[in-house]
Known about the structure:
The protein has three domains: 189 residues, no CATH class; 106 residues, 2-Layer Sandwich (Beta-Lactamase), CATH 3.30.450; 157 residues, Reverse transcriptase/Diguanylate cyclase domain (Alpha-Beta Plaits). Helices cover 57% and strands 13% of the residues. It contains 16 helices and ten strands. The strands form two sheets. Strands 3-2-1-6-5-4 form a six-stranded antiparallel beta sheet, sandwiched between helices. Helix 1 runs parallel beside helix 4, helix 2 runs antiparallel to helix 3 and helix 13 packs antiparallel against helix 14. The two termini are 96 Å apart.
Amino acid sequence: MLNTDFSGKTLDFEQFRRENRYKVNHALNRILWFCILAGPAISLGIVGGVFKRTTYLTCIIISFVMAALAGGNSLLLKKKPFSYFPGIFALVAVDVLLCYMNASHISIRLTWCLVPFLSLLFSESRVYIGTSVFNYLIMALSTWLEAPHYAEVRTDFSSPLMGFINIFAGCTIEAVIIFAAGMALEQATSNYYRSMLTQYAEGQEQQKAMQEQLNILNSMAEIYDYVNLIDFNDSSEMSLRGSKLNKLTIAPGQDHTNMTQGLRSLLAPDMVDDFWKFTDITTVPLRLINRKSIVGEFVSNNTGWFRAQYIRVSGDIDKKPDVVIYTIQNIDADKRREEHLIRISMTDELTRLYNRRCYEEDIAAVHERPDNGNLALISADVNGLKAVNDNLGHAAGDELLRGAAFCLLSALGSYGRVYRTGGDEFMAIVNADDCSALAEDVKNKAEAWHGRLVDGVSISVGFAGRTEFPHAAVEELEKLADKRMYEAKARHYQETGIDRRKR
């Protein structure tokens, strides 16, 4: 192959010339070995009476000399296979052979122009020019040596000099014409080879780019459950999973791919409308303007959560894409891990209630729903925690907090969320019209609770709701609930006769 070296790498024009020299040198070497047969061929001409003034000794000399030259050329070829010298040596040897044959009255004029033309195989003008000049000089020498013979056999030549001038003038005209034709041919072939190699290199680059894209697509196909290539130029889709890449036509007016239509029946009912809107391919190109991808997450009845994504493949980022990749990836395990992490980050480790961070986020969300007419905040505090920790140990204190959490969640959990916001402090955000009934229920639950290390639990509760304070802001309800809780705590310590400073 002219366009690759022996390792298969793409060549530029100079590399091509180097590798070409190697092949031309070997071809010319084979021609030299073939020229050994010139001796036997000429001897057959002597036998047939064609070469009457040639001897068998000439045939032996030709074969012997050509064998020696071919052997020498082979040695030179082994040492310098990529050099000009083996090829030029071979061409000079052929010129010498032609000169000797002419001197021996074996005239084959057409062969003179073949030697320069053989040098065109190198695709290098300087080699062709040098070979042509040397060939012209050898032809002149051969004509001078042959002139006396022509003067002798032809009556139109008055002297050998006249014979030389007459024959050499014709040869010169032929040489000039052939040289010009050869130069034009060398330029044309060189330009052709340059163009061919450039096109091949560009094709190799495009093929490499396409292969890289295919490798990426194959990698994507291993990651995603479904991978489709959607080409808006010819309205087609092609699955990239599996060994066969079957291209399907998207019919005129069809607004969803075949893969999408197959997935619709597997969706959770409340997800169908959103999924159908997201996967509408008539709007995908517009939605991808100034975006590399668009993503939607949905739930399947069979496999749980999955992510659908359209990824831009071609086209400027500020224009509609011509080709996109449509992928489906199961993310149910990731969603479960995500939910678990969120639950951990929002949950108090000891009581398993929601923590203060969750409470603050929920309070912020309540601000966005000012029309919530039966919103209520409940503040609660465990009585006597310090005394339990001091006298019975922190394990008993932890049990007391878990007991309080159980009572609060049992009484308030069906109305809203319960939070542990501090050491012995709790809050609840509920929707209830009668908060006093909820507070009473908390008290009853606490009186009924008994632990392993702690006999009982006491909880002070304060509340404030929109039914009682319809125009109060959330912050005001929170302050009112805290105020009432501290009042209830004060009554508890007053009724029990316990010093609050030692609680």
